[in-house]
Amino acid sequence: MATSIIIDTDPGQDDAVALLLALGSPLDVVAITVVAGNVPLNLTVRNALVVCDVARRPEVPVYAGAGGPLEGALVTAEYVHGPTGLDGYELPDPTRQASVGFAPDRIVELVMSHPPGEITLCTLGPLTNVALALRQDPAIAGRLGGIVMMGGGFFEGGNTTPAAEFNIFVDPVAAAEVFRSGIDIVMMPLDVTHKVLSNSARVDAFKQLGNHAGEVVAGWIGFFDRFDREKYGTEGAPLHDPCVIAYLLEPDLFSGRYCNVEIETVSPLTKGMTVVDWWRVTDRPPNAHVMRDVDADGFFALLTRTVGLL
Ligand code: BDR
Ligand code: CA
Prior knowledge:
- By secondary structure, the protein is an alpha/beta fold.
- The chain has a single domain (4-307), classed as Ribonucleoside hydrolase-like (Inosine-uridine Nucleoside N-ribohydrolase, Chain A, Alpha-Beta Complex).
- It has helices spanning 13-23, 41-54, 78-81, 103-113, 128-136, 140-143, 166-170, 172-179, 190-193, 200-207, 212-232, 242-249, 296-307, and strands at residues 4-9, 28-34, 62-64, 119-123, 146-150, 185-188, 254-259, 261-263, 274-276, 288-294.
């Protein structure tokens, strides 16, 4: 049976590519729940709907969720993703509106109405919706098959502050609650995602697919990668969020270690840091499968092949 997933996301070009990978794959996408992050909520919702249209999957419900973190003001990343969050390819307005319901409520209802372990939550943005769902009904922790998340960084440091990766930095309080929930977590930090870099050959491969989705993905990456090329001097951009979906489809592409992760929520210097006990120097119990390595060629082969099916 195909794995059933809920994707919680803040699209974002790399979120959008992750959505296409999921929608083109055998995974059963039960719902897309949307959170504010890369851009404000009205735009992330719009972008999620636009991506469903690109995938020709208008039946997948899209629910709007939290418009900002549990504490403090929303931090966005237009400097990476452009003013719409999805700059790089001109697309028509979505053909529908978001479905009725608040994303955290729908996460609770969906998880509790499916058999135990059946739904896996894929998180591609700040963890606000997930924390709100956990606050509403902590029983979802025992009912979920697990969470596969993009977030954090340890050997690689942060990308938003020297210590913090964007998704965790935007809502560290939510992240701390999720890491303490007891849910089985697979974490895709910057240490992995900075190894799946686009380059001209990989972007050309999307163009050469000859379908609309391939052209759109090439356009998005072509916009998104200018920021990372300038910042890191690399040939292209990290495709952070698609790592989450790729893990569900081909887990052997990734390797890591089961260890303890705690989230710094207070220090002005390191707020949003994922403190990973990689070397097991504490006796804090392991709570996350922290990935560190990836077969990048295998990842791009999977992604290109799947986008070619759309
Ligand atoms: C994460 O932050 C966002 O900008 C990306 O979509 C990704 O989820 C990378 O730090
Ligand atoms: Ca994201």
